[in-house]
Specification:
By secondary structure, the protein is an alpha/beta fold. The protein contains 23 helices and 7 strands. The strands form 2 sheets. Strands 1-6-7-5-4 form a 5-stranded mixed β-sheet, covered by helices on one side. A two-stranded antiparallel ribbon has the order 2-3. A hairpin with a 7-residue loop joins strand 6 and strand 7. The longest helix has 37 residues. This is Potassium transporter.
Length: 657
């Protein structure tokens, strides 16, 4: 490349050379970073209140958009939950007591998992442990000095260190952990196939299903194709387009639920007590336990809530859930239960039967529109998780389109979008029934939650540096709840649940094979790199003409010189005076600050003018050419040279390693 405006002045040859020269001469420009971080933390505390106030309007706007993207799936669950619970053997237990127990189960499931686990405690960290495993072969000690790397309190706890060392010593355990994470990621992607099919067929569960059966298949295909065709518009536009529909839907079901509670059976408020759950299982026994597969449909969409964090902020997602989604859903399920307790015969048509006649048609239209947009949450989440897996070397290279200039996490992946559409059409046309699709749906959702709980416990110990006892308590508490639902979901594998397993294993195999091939390629390049003695034997001119300018050579190696360089030297008549080997890699943090992005070091003695630049990105960073990359890189090298010159003057024997 031609030399840009920022010039690099090599230090004079009269400066004493470093005592040790070679591949270990890697250095970070972040000297004195600890002091700067401490100052930044002090200043950050002073600006916290101002920052929160300044960003509150933005959070409200994002909260509004999140209704159309994040909560469509979760909000449309009342359409089919009660029908799914009482289908099968539980038909023999249709009475007011079991209906009260079913509502109590739904209420506490909504409270413990979406509210307590996800909104109250868990920032969706599915990819963090994946990142630790998948980029292990690219990991360097200098990466742990990143300010964003230190999530927990200063200093590492003994439990954190012991768990890290245990994982580092056992390669098979790391591989098993990687497989578990890839299985979870595969389940999320598989969920992205099943959810749209479930959403469009839930409309067909209306009392007019027989009337509309002749056109139901064509309508489902048109809706699905239109939904995926809209994805290229981006989360911002889709959110603004769909948000009014979901908000109107939530307000409608809240009003209907409140009306039914007052009109039919106000005593349903007593079912908020978990005592009714005990009575439910006491009356239904094993049949009630199997019905948990229907109960878990009340929380479908929760698994994608924080996978959509790249599209929205955590604050906006919490605001939307706490102030509208959660209370509306609780009141709606309460109202349905109150209605069904006095109208047992309406259980197969629980939602539409509970709508007052005077508002039936407006609500029916809103329900149809809400069902259409219900799958947007998992589609956006699928884009996010594939983008992160791709950044970590666990997914084939795909085109990632950033649809927003303000929020870098709002992305669209064309290839994945059309693959999801084809698979979704196959599932929708193959089953044509919400029961079978719901079984696959529930299995995918609960598998993701079960795996996420396990990974969250690891994050609590390794990242947040909490005690193992606290993490174990978190793990056992939520695993006890989720395992009950998961086993109930696995019982229904022959009745459609197998679809989620097949899809997840296909995607997991693709990701694991790609990760394995990427790792083997890196190891091959690492073991076939150019020997340093060979380069030193060529002399500073490298045996060719060195012309003015700066040459950038891309390499995936974080250490050593790639084998392709020997081909350049032996076949090219001339090369630039300054050579920079550039390695771009992802590191185990969400974001890397611009001040810490470039890691500079020498490869050979000063007369050779050969440098290495490791460009570090977090797995949520936007990796794009903003037109200033070369200037930033050269400025970083210039600062490194200045640091090296000052160090050599102050201490002749000093060497930057």
């Amino acid at each position: 490349m031609n030399q840009p405006d920022i010039a690099i002045e090599e230090e004079s040859n009269d400066l004493p050379p470093p005592t040790a020269v070679g591949e270990a001469q890697e250095s970070t420009r972040a000297a004195g970073q600890d002091g700067q971080n401490e100052l930044a933390q002090i200043e950050g505390k002073k600006r916290t209140s101002k920052f929160v106030l300044a960003n509150f309007p933005t959070s409200l706007i994002l909260a509004y958009q999140s209704f159309g993207v994040v909560y469509g799936d979760l909000s449309t669950s009342p359409l089919y939950v009660y029908r799914s619970i009482f289908i099968g053997k539980l038909q023999n237990h249709q009475n007011p007591e079991t209906i009260f127990g079913a509502f109590s189960l739904i209420f506490w499931t909504l409270t413990l998992i979406p509210l307590l686990k996800y909104v109250g405690h868990l920032l969706f960290t599915l990819c963090f442990v994946d990142m630790e495993s998948s980029v292990y072969f690219l990991k360097q000690a200098a990466d742990e000095e990143l300010s964003a790397y230190k999530y927990g309190p200063p200093g590492q706890s003994s439990s954190s260190v012991s768990v890290k060392r245990f994982l580092e010593k056992h390669k098979k355990l790391r591989t098993a952990l990687l497989l578990v994470v890839l299985l979870g990621a595969g389940m999320v992607i598989g969920d992205g196939v099943v959810t749209p099919a479930m959403s469009v067929w839930s409309v067909g569960a209306s009392p007019f299903r027989l009337l509309l059966q002749c056109s139901c298949v064509a309508r489902a295909c048109i809706i699905l194709v239109g939904l995926f065709a809209l994805q290229h518009c981006g989360t911002h536009k889709v959110g603004f387009l769909f948000a009014p529909v979901v908000i109107l839907w939530l307000l409608s079901i809240f009003s209907i639920g409140l009306y039914n509670t007052i009109q039919w059976n106000p005593k349903i408020l007593l079912a908020l007590s978990p005592h009714y759950i005990i009575k439910f299982f006491g009356q239904t026994g094993r049949d009630g336990w199997i019905s948990l597969g229907g109960v878990l449909l009340a929380i479908t969409g929760t698994e994608a809530m924080f996978a959509d964090l790249g599209h929205f902020s955590a604050c906006s997602i919490r605001i939307a859930f706490l102030f509208l989604v959660y209370p509306c859903l609780v009141v709606q399920y309460m109202g349905q239960a109150a209605f069904l307790s006095k109208n047992i015969q309406e259980i197969p048509n629980s939602f539409y039967g509970s709508i007052p006649d005077s508002v039936f048609w407006p609500v029916f239209v809103i329900a149809t529109l809400a069902s259409i947009v219900g799958s947007q949450a998992i589609i956006s989440a699928t884009f996010s998780i594939i983008k992160q897996c791709h950044a970590l070397g666990c997914f084939p290279r795909v085109k990632v389109v950033h649809t927003s200039k303000q929020i870098h996490g709002q992305i669209y992946i064309p290839e994945i979008n059309w693959i999801l559409m084809i698979l979704t059409l196959a599932v929708a046309l193959g089953f044509k029934d919400t029961t079978a699709i719901g079984n696959a749906y529930g299995l995918a959702v609960m598998s993701v939650m079960f795996i996420t709980t396990f990974l969250m416990a690891l994050v609590m110990v390794i990242v947040w540096q909490r005690s193992i006892i606290l993490a174990a308590g978190f793990l056992l508490f939520f695993w006890f709840i989720e395992a009950s639902y998961l086993v109930a979901a696995f019982i229904k594998v022959p009745q459609g649940g197998w679809v989620s397993l097949v899809l997840s294993f296909i995607f997991m195999s693709v990701m694991f094979v790609w990760h394995y091939g990427t790792r083997r390629k890196y190891n091959f390049d690492l073991h076939n790199k150019v020997p340093l003695k060979w380069i030193l034997g060529l002399g500073p001119s490298l045996g060719i003409v060195r012309v003015p300018g700066i040459g950038l050579i891309y390499s995936e190696l974080a250490t050593g010189v790639p084998a392709i360089f020997s081909h350049f030297v032996t076949n090219l008549p001339a090369f630039h005076k300054v050579l920079v080997f550039v390695c771009v890699k992802s590191v185990p943090v969400p974001y890397v600050s611009p001040e810490e992005r470039f890691l500079i070091g020498r490869i050979c003695p000063r007369p050779y003018r050969m440098y290495r630049c490791i460009v570090r990105y977090g797995y949520k960073d936007l990796q794009g050419d903003d037109g200033n990359f070369e200037n930033q890189l050269i400025q970083s090298i210039a600062e490194f040279i200045q640091m090296e010159a000052v160090a050599s003057v102050l201490e002749p024997r000093f060497c930057i390693l």
